[in-house]
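ARCHIVE RECORD
Type: protein–small molecule complex
Small molecule: LTNE7NMQ
Source of inputs: curated submission
Record status: active
Notes field left blank by submitter.
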Amino acid sequence: MKPERGPLRVALLGCGVVGSEVVRLLREQADDLAARVGTPLELAGVAVRRPERVRAGVDPALVTTDAQGLVTRDDVDIVVEVIGGIEPARTLMLEAMKTGKSVVTANKALLAEDGATLFAAAREYGADLYYEAAVAGAIPLLRPLRESLVGDHVHRVLGIVNGTTNYILDQMDSGGAGFNEALEEAQALGYAEADPTADVEGFDAAAKAAILAQLAFHTPVTAADVHREGITEVSAADVAGAKGMDCVVKLLAICERVPSEGGRNGRGVSVRVYPAMIPRTHPLASVREAYNAVFVEAESAGSLMFYGAGAGGAPTASAVLGDLVAVARNVVGGTPGPVEVTYAKLPVLPMGETVTRYYIHLDVTDEAGVLATVAEEFARHEVSIQAVRQVGLGEEAQLVVVTHRAPDAALSAVVEGLRGLDSVREVASVMRVEGEE
Ligand SMILES: NC(=O)C1=CN([C@@H]2O[C@H](COP(=O)(O)OP(=O)(O)OC[C@H]3O[C@@H](n4cnc5c(N)ncnc54)[C@H](OP(=O)(O)O)[C@@H]3O)[C@@H](O)[C@H]2O)C=CC1
Ligand SMILES: N[C@@H](CC=O)C(=O)O
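STRUCTURE (tokenized, with ligand):
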């Protein structure tokens, strides 16, 4: 008979929105977790910045500001990092792995910036590094990509991966709160990052897109490789324009293989984050509030959709606990899980080469020949127009143009050209359009 092992000791780094929910779940589900792991999970310490704060359900004797001391303690088996940011999180995780501990983290910013260093350490020290909570909150998405779909050939991952911006855009669309008010609500609900610029400027979604692309295509992708546009430039007029087209504006993360002639792996990958119009009939259009949804399109599996709570303390803690149990089982079994291998070295293609569609809203002079002048600008850059519509007359004259698919460089050259035309008073709105033509 195997000797019974003692409890597994868990060091928690950070006890904010996510960390406090991890503590609650560890306490409330202690017996079930022990049964699932085969031994109890016990909190060894909780590292924070402000130890004087009262934290519900946390034994004050466990609280410390010495995170470094905590992760290197001999009586710690697993480290859960929910501090966020690059440092000291990176050093702490590396120290933990160096001293034989496995790590669970929700830190997408760090994984997308310097995941390679962390994965190398995990390999070198035989430690687990699990991070399901880093992308799309509660939704099991990384494990399906890493394990269930590892035998398939993924073509595309596309979806809404930032709860805060979806919440704001949803409010703008439904005529509820304005941008700032909706952002404040998202912060109060625990969806936003410590610095919400990461959300509204698309950094958070770009980090998640990098992580998704790396897993889906087995190729190194960092946040710096991702074309990123946030939602701060999305105006009420853009949202109204989308409504006029029976569309809705969503911040999308898109990771796709770009096909090559005959090559199976493709010419490279395109990884991008930007606000785009999608038809209201598209499944992503019905993703409201801080929910996330991601489509994965794979050769044999076809199209899979993952949907659920993408942010917030409890949903994210659920994903952390899932990883914690998985890692704990590996510790009990004495074998670490698989570590990411990025064997394919596919280039990340520049945005200019990516094929997209544009919606362009122009204020124009209402006179004969305007349409022809505008159309000529599209033709000059070999961009084909799918639909054009005039709204308003005289001073109010406007043209709404939707293009067919074309390289992004050509589309943005068209916009530049339009800005220079005498008959175009203003380029009032430009937005990419996703979904079927
Ligand atoms: N909130 C969400 O919905 C989601 C968050 N995440 C990720 O989870 C992580 C944590 O996010 P969240 O809980 O929202 O963040 P919070 O800002 O709410 O919590 C951060 C915690 O880290 C502690 N901390 C900060 N700096 C240090 C330091 N130098 N040493 C020790 N402790 C420190 C803080 O201490 P103190 O309490 O004393 O200030 C706080 O307890 C981030 O990586 C985030 O991106 C992932 C998915 C969803
Ligand atoms: N700030 C993030 C939190 C989850 O990752 C978001 O809003 O999605």
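CURATOR ANNOTATION: The chain has three domains: 8-137+314-333, 142-309, 352-433.
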